[in-house]
């Protein structure tokens, strides 16, 4: 084959070369030419956004709460609108998204911006009809209610709507309007919007295309429609913190794409269905603080993608099936505060990815597994408050170095834990092994390597410790140490105190310590040494101390002058020692001092001026059982927060302190066993009288008539409407006021003052005249004692209205006439004493009166009938006991009594109750029996309306955990 002619070659190749040159030239031209003009949003959209920006204003501080998964946590500090400018393209503005082809604004995200303003119906925001994403979460809009939905509803292109804000309120009509036209909606976030007026049934109107629904803290009420769980595309559903939202989980037809299910703190109930195992895509399941019951289905093990599983604080029960083998991705497991029992499933200790495990507050028993193959990423392990027993396995101290929290408290574990074992846990931050009475803690023979570089909290209360572990000196970061209720003897030496320099909180109560050479640390805020066997002078605390509790010891001498150097004391409890001398004046100068308890010592002299600093926070002043003298300091009127004032058992000489009338919070006033005198009158103010729940004026030298106006103003004893607020705690250490009440020659030391324990004791004075009828209006009164006075007249029938009364003592007076039959309606009356009066006629019969003995009536020569030996004649007659209730009332009235504590910091406004005991002479054996059979904190009792029926006698019930008794018969 011959060569190609030149002309043919030129004709074929030249065009190709030319084309190649043109392509290269074009490429070079494209590379060297300027870029195309930037995308420009539509002018009307830019203008609408600028007008919307101008309707808002920014503010510096933003206080956004944390939100659950499915709702972002706000961290932004600058408004996203800050650099919006009319001269720039709005598509480049922060928070604005435009369509790539049409240049229309399709997304607006101003979430978490510190912006405030109104959102009127004519807002320019609603001109952006092409919006697909709108996020205005956590902006502070004012005056925004359902009307905003009228404007958003026409934005039919919306795919994602985020309006989370506590300023927004929706009713049922506006919610339905909101979702009616939003047929393309996939994401709806309304966290913290007030939806209390939205019926949960309205949620059925949401489009079935919904993928994410977040209604965190929306105050929803009623029953949640279970059909929502079957929406075909639903991935996330957040209903957390809707306390009054009830419902149940469906037994079938779940949305298979579901990934996040959060129902925490709702009223969802019923059992966990087997169908839960069909949610193969589920990653997070939070059913905590609900009302679920029953056992855990084995199908739970099918959730192979689960990372977060929280079932705490429900009523689940039974044994947990061994379902954890497939949980390869699980990070958090919390089954705490349920009723699970049996052995821990072996697979739970083989989880390799879990970081937090909480199985505390159940009934798990048996020993811990001796061998594990997992827990390699564990950071927190909580197994407290179970029934675990046996020796602590060694693997606990070979857990990963990341372990920070270990709590095995309140079990039955045994063995000895040495410091060198613990030292392997280099990142341990909190260790709690308390309440394992067979467990001991000791130091290794060589503590050089026993260091704890991050240990902050160590609790080893109620174990078997006999001395301070020496390794504690090496814990430079230790701030909280609890070794209470052990058998530690000896003293807190200077050597040990210097090793605890970082301590803030130290609890050594209920040990056998005899001396404190030096308080530890310079930053100590709370120390509890109640009760030990401390002797010698009272040591000077560091200036940083807030709570000094050193009662029930054997300390002597005066209060050191160093107490005047304390910076900000809150609670000083030096009671039940042998301290003497005068009370330092500086204790009355502290603005911060809330509780000063010096009772049962030997202090003498006058009470110093109190509350000298304006705005004093003093709530409780207890100086009972000392040798104080002189008048009450008038400066007490400046203690505006005072709730408890106990000056009993001293040598004070004064008239009734009517000037305390300005103290509106005063609830307890004890002046017993002093030298107070004169009438109870000149009541310039009535504020403190209305709040009083306990007043004890016996025995003193008061005279005159019983003050009718005084009883009229005792509002707190007439009706209780205040809700309980719970006890106040010092750190994690509860502190409560206590008082000693003397009844029939016996002392009751109430370690916790009870709000509903109401008492009036005016006994052993020189009062005269009649018992005022208005006393019968004090329907919450529990104890009434007017004995050993010179009262005359008759017993008012109005006392039959005192339905809560458990003790009535009118003995040793000059009262005459009959006992009113109305008193038989007092079905809680446990003690009655009307002896040594001038009463006549038959003793009433029925209810509690059938239980009283002859001692209740002796010294009344003209009494007759049971239980007395002399029978009544027909002429003396007997009237049937009338009922104080309406015979036509078809609804039985009832009131409920509850036990609780009254802490020093809560204002003592707690709705509490207990049966009250009045002692007769001699040892109250019957009381001991009642205490032994009443171990629970709470006893509920009801008074039902009667129709003339006879009731069985009712004995008062009280908890031995609330008080102890000192028998001291006089």
Question: How is this structure best described in words?
Answer:
The protein is mainly beta. Among the domains are: 40-220, Ribonuclease Inhibitor (Leucine-rich repeat, LRR (right-handed beta-alpha superhelix), Alpha-Beta Horseshoe), CATH 3.80.10.10; 717-741 and 758-970, Leucine-rich repeat, LRR (right-handed beta-alpha superhelix) (Alpha-Beta Horseshoe). It has nine helices and 65 strands. The protein has a 30-stranded mixed beta sheet, with no helix packed on it. It has a ten-stranded parallel beta sheet with strand order 12-14-16-18-20-22-24-26-28-30. The chain has a six-stranded parallel beta sheet with strand order 37-39-41-43-45-47, with no helix packed on it. The radius of gyration is 38 Å and the shape is globular.
Q: What class do helices, strands and sheet pairing give?
A: mainly beta
| Rg over CA atoms | 38 Å
Q: What characterizes the major β-sheet?
A: 30 strands, mixed
If you average the pLDDT, what whole number results? 81
Main CATH class of the domain at 717-741 and 758-970: Alpha Beta
CATH architectural label of the domain at 717-741 and 758-970: Alpha-Beta Horseshoe
> For the terminal residues, how far apart are their CA atoms?
144 Å
Tally of strands: 65
Q: Tally the helices: what do you get?
A: 9
Could you estimate the helical fraction of the residues in percent?
A: under 10%
Going by CATH, the homologous superfamily of the domain at 717-741 and 758-970 would be: Ribonuclease Inhibitor
Shape: globular
Low-confidence stretches: 1-33, 64-71, 721-733, 882-970
What proportion strand? 15-25%
As for the CATH topology of the domain at 717-741 and 758-970, it is: Leucine-rich repeat, LRR (right-handed beta-alpha superhelix)
